[in-house]
Design a protein that fits this description.
Layout (H helix, E strand, L loop, with lengths): L1 H7 L4 H8 L3 H10 L1 H34 L1
Length: 69
């Protein structure tokens, strides 16, 4: 879970490995060969993008309200 959080922040495999205390190769293996890790990473990425889209929609609506005034 820690590794996934760091990956979602855009950190490199090397930075993730240092943060969670494993070898860089281990992070690479998780990202490329571990089906459960890959599924959870993809699920959390999808959720992150969904939240970002919703926030953007809200901000766009507020911006349009200001422009209309």
């Amino acid at each position: 879970q820690n590794a996934i959080e760091h990956l979602l922040q855009g950190k490199s495999d090397r930075a993730v490995s240092e943060a969670v205390g494993v070898a860089r190769q281990t992070v690479w293996e998780w990202r490329n060969n571990d089906p459960l890790f890959i599924a959870e990473l993809n699920r959390q990425r999808s959720e992150m993008w969904k939240e970002a889209r919703e926030r953007l929609k809200t901000m766009a609506n507020r911006a349009l309200d200001v422009v209309e005034l």
